[in-house]
Task: inverse folding
């Protein structure tokens, strides 16, 4: 397989809402570029990107799929484009977001029949946040009853006047005209000459020399504008619109030309977002001669070949048999077989350079977001963290067969290593393990994968709501623990005061004991007792948060004072203080975003109100759809997916993220408190 230099590499992620045609478009690109003989079909389960059996069953992407193709520039130089097809539905956003750090260009695919959808907006915002070049691909241009001129205006209104067509459909969507290279032709709408002029003017605005020449001559040769165009893309000064039909292939050749000829290579793009341990920016240079730095953006646990890590090289070169390091691990790993991907198929290569997306297998140290490097100077560098949605939908999970507890733990950890939008919690009080994800559909796919891939069946149920407790005012607490059992006794006495902290700032423990009233070696025991009281709760058995605890006095005994005595005294003193500090119960509040037909808005807002929710805003979308934003207690959303489905006849969807915590209504707090019985200790 040929080796491509960094300047002849491109990296692109196909992003956008589910159903916009990303996988079909990727198939068309691979076929047009000669990488596959003919296009596969999502419906028949024969595409390169949706190769997983579960993806074939549901007929949409569940994971990011890496592919590549080669095509020539104008001068005949061959270019390799690494292309990632990502899931579009909000349920699987973790895979799409993780891919952003692997590419320099975000290509957001827009369904011409549906217009701007929920994930269109989100992906445009996330790509901008990660400082990526952005292009818009309007797909399905040959569909009936599409209003493309109106869609262009909607895209400009949503994302700014930097949005401009680089080509236009012609012959009723059967082909497209390149409006960057050409200033004449018959398009289905708009003037090719006018679009050409506007695009050129937008490009030369970022380059004084090009602007001056344009003003003098009244035009500019597009072949001389590669530098200004890449600069405009880097700065977000231009966001080209490309028109295609992934189904018929119209415009696909032109899209390939845009990717190969006009998109910046890794050396021309904005710097990757790396930091050191202190959070200071680290500049990496896409030079193949410098020490290697690569970032893992995807991990797959295969039951047959082990852990597979997919990465993007940002600096240096990876070669067969290299000894490298993962994160701050001191033990080196050996790269036996560096490979590149074409869907599920792999091809071994001699080396990978900056801009390449590669894969290595059977290395257990690899986890999502880890950094592979050749020098210990890079032990502590990290990619700036992505803002993943907080997983809020939970299921209490247990193995269906006794004895599978160990396997369940191992397999869940593998699932977590693959998906940054999964979380695992264990409630020791209830002995309940809760798996949390983005939605019911998200967790359903995880459980199906566990059953199909690892042959593990589980039982699930609705978990309890993660309520919290806190205090409303300051108070003091005191406790003496004293036991005499005939021999050496137990003695410890603690005085402390507590005060509420700002919501979300956590727990703070302060030692202000003077004169050795409590020997310093027993202070950790007091803190342990305080933490135990916070964990077990006071009102309804939920953890107490956002409290500052100051231990300021106490007593000890030269013979009878022991660690266990001060643990007990610390716990009792803390409970004594909480009882006087107006303890209250808090419930999780989520930001909810609902996409639904505008005809259902009245029913949706009424239903939210009945769930103690509030609507905070609405926005119109194309195709008679609306976005409803609101806040609602998480406890009120049990069964909401089924309810929304019934209201909208299956046309609605929603996503949610944790917003914060708020006091529980008095009646609800009384109900929860009535079911809790605190274990009092003997003095």
Result:
């Amino acid at each position: 397989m040929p080796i491509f230099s960094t300047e002849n590499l491109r990296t692109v992620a196909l992003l956008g809402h589910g159903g916009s045609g990303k996988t079909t478009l990727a198939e068309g690109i691979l076929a047009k570029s000669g990488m596959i003989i003919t296009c596969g079909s999502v419906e028949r389960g024969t595409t390169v990107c949706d190769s997983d059996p579960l993806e074939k069953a549901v007929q949409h992407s569940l994971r990011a799929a890496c592919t590549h193709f080669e095509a020539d520039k104008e001068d005949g130089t061959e270019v390799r484009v690494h292309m990632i097809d990502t899931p579009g539905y909000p349920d699987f956003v973790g895979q799409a977001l993780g891919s952003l750090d692997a590419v320099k260009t975000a290509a957001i695919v827009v369904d011409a029949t549906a217009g701007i959808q929920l994930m269109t907006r989100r992906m445009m915002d996330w790509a901008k946040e990660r400082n990526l070049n952005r292009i818009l691909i309007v797909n399905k241009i040959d569909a009936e009853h599409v209003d493309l001129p109106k869609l262009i205006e909607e895209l400009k209104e949503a994302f700014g006047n930097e949005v401009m067509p680089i080509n236009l459909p012609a012959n009723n969507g059967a082909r497209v005209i390149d409006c960057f290279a050409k200033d004449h032709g018959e398009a289905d709408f708009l003037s090719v000459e006018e679009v050409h002029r506007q695009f050129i003017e937008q490009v030369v605005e970022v380059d004084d020399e090009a602007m001056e020449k344009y003003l003098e001559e009244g035009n500019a040769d597009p072949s001389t504008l590669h530098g200004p165009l890449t600069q405009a893309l880097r700065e977000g000064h231009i966001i080209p619109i490309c028109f295609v039909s992934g189904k018929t292939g119209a415009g696909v050749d032109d899209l390939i030309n845009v990717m190969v000829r006009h998109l910046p290579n890794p050396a021309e793009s904005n710097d990757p977002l790396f930091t050191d341990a202190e959070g200071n920016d680290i500049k990496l240079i896409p030079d193949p001669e410098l020490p290697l730095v690569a970032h893992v953006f995807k991990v797959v646990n295969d039951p047959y070949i082990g852990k597979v890590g997919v990465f993007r090289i940002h600096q240096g070169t990876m070669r067969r048999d290299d000894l490298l390091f993962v994160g701050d691990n001191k033990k080196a790993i050996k790269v036996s077989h560096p490979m590149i991907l074409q869907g599920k198929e792999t091809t071994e290569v001699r080396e990978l350079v900056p801009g390449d997306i590669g894969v290595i297998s059977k290395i257990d140290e690899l986890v999502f977001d880890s950094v592979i490097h050749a020098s210990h100077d890079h032990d502590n560098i990290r990619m700036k963290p992505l803002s993943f949605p907080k997983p809020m939908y939970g299921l209490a999970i247990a193995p269906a067969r006794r004895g599978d507890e160990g396997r369940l733990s191992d397999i869940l950890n593998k699932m977590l290593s693959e998906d940054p939008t999964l979380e695992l919690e264990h409630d020791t009080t209830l002995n309940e393990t809760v798996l949390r994800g983005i939605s019911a559909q998200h967790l359903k796919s995880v459980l199906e994968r566990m059953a199909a891939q690892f042959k593990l069946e589980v039982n699930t149920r609705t978990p309890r709501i993660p309520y919290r407790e806190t205090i409303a005012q300051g108070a003091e607490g005191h406790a003496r623990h004293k036991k005499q059992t005939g021999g050496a006794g137990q003695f410890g006495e603690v005085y402390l005061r507590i005060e509420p902290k700002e919501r979300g700032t956590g727990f703070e423990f302060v030692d202000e004991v003077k004169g050795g009233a409590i020997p310093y070696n027993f202070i950790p025991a007091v803190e342990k007792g305080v933490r135990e009281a916070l964990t077990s709760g006071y009102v309804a058995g939920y953890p107490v948060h956002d409290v500052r605890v100051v231990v300021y006095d106490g007593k000890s005994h030269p013979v009878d004072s022991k660690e266990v005595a001060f643990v007990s005294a610390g716990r009792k003193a803390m409970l004594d203080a909480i009882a006087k500090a107006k303890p209250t119960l808090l419930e999780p509040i989520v930001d909810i975003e609902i996409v639904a037909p505008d005809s259902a808005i009245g029913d949706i807002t009424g239903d939210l109100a009945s769930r103690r929710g509030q609507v905070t805003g609405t926005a119109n979308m194309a195709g008679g759809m609306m976005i409803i934003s609101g806040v609602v207690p998480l406890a009120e959303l049990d069964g909401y997916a089924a309810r929304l489905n019934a209201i909208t006849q299956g046309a609605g969807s929603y996503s949610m993220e944790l917003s914060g915590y708020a006091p529980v209504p008095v009646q609800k707090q009384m109900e929860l408190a009535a079911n809790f019985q605190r274990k009092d200790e003997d003095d």
User: Anything to note?
Assistant: The two ends are 77 Å apart (CA to CA). Residues 377 and 554 are 49 Å apart (CA to CA).
